[in-house]
C-alpha cells in the first residue's frame, strides 16, 4: 500500500479583509511572531508569515476585494482553527483584556476537555482547547 507519509501541518493560509487589523490581531492579541513580511506589488498584496512558539504556522494574505465566504462553524469547508492551551480560563481572561469576546466554555463530550470559540477580525472561527 502506498502511503502519502504526511509529517505535519506545514501552514494554514488565511485571507483577511483588512491587513493591518488582522496583522495586529494575530501578533498583538494572539502572540504570533512575524517570520517574514512581503509586499507583492504585482498583486497589490501582502503575505505575512507567522510563527507560534518558534514554529511557522500561518500565512496571512491580503488581496484587494477578497470574495466573502461563509465562516460559521457548520458551513461546508474549513470549520475552524483550534489552538491548544494549558489553562482555558486564563487564556479567555487574557483575550477579554484585549477586547476579544469568547463564547461560554463548553465540555467536549468525547474527551471531557474544555473549549470555547471566538472570532478573528474577519469572523473566522477560532477555538481554544484545553489540554
Give the strand content.
35-45%
Structural class assignment? alpha/beta
Major β-sheet annotation: 4 strands, mixed
Radius of gyration: 16 Å
The name of the CATH topology of the largest domain is 2,3-Dihydroxybiphenyl 1,2-Dioxygenase, domain 1
Q: What is the level 1 CATH name of the largest domain?
A: Alpha Beta
| DSSP strand tally | 8
- In CATH terms, the superfamily of the largest domain is 2,3-Dihydroxybiphenyl 1,2-Dioxygenase, domain 1
The residue ranges in which pLDDT falls below 50 over 5 or more consecutive positions are: none
Q: Any idea how many domains? A: 2
Report on the structure:
The protein is an alpha/beta fold and 131 residues long. The protein has 2 domains: 8-65, 2,3-Dihydroxybiphenyl 1,2-Dioxygenase, domain 1 (Roll), CATH 3.10.180.10; 72-131, Roll (2,3-Dihydroxybiphenyl 1,2-Dioxygenase, domain 1). It is 16% helix and 37% strand. It has 2 helices and 8 strands, in the order βαββββαβββ. It has helices spanning 19-29, 88-97, and strands spanning 12-16, 33-40, 45-52, 55-62, 81-85, 106-107, 114-119, 125-130. The strands form 2 sheets. It has a 4-stranded mixed β-sheet, covered by helices on one side. Strand 6 (106-107) and strand 7 (114-119) form a beta hairpin. The longest helix has 11 residues, at 19-29. It is globular.
Amino acid at each position: 500500500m502506498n502511503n502519502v507519509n504526511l509529517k505535519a501541518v506545514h501552514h494554514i493560509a488565511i485571507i483577511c479583509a483588512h491587513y493591518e487589523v488582522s496583522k495586529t490581531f494575530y501578533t498583538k492579541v494572539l502572540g504570533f511572531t512575524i517570520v517574514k513580511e512581503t509586499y507583492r506589488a504585482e498583486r497589490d498584496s501582502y503575505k505575512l508569515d507567522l510563527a507560534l512558539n518558534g514554529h511557522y504556522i500561518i500565512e496571512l494574505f491580503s488581496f484587494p476585494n477578497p470574495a466573502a465566504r461563509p465562516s460559521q462553524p457548520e458551513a461546508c469547508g474549513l470549520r475552524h482553527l483550534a489552538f491548544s492551551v494549558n489553562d482555558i480560563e486564563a487564556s479567555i481572561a487574557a483575550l477579554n483584556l484585549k477586547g476579544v469576546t469568547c463564547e461560554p466554555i463548553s465540555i467536549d463530550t468525547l474527551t471531557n476537555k474544555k473549549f470555547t470559540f471566538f472570532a478573528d477580525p474577519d469572523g473566522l472561527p477560532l477555538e481554544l482547547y484545553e489540554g
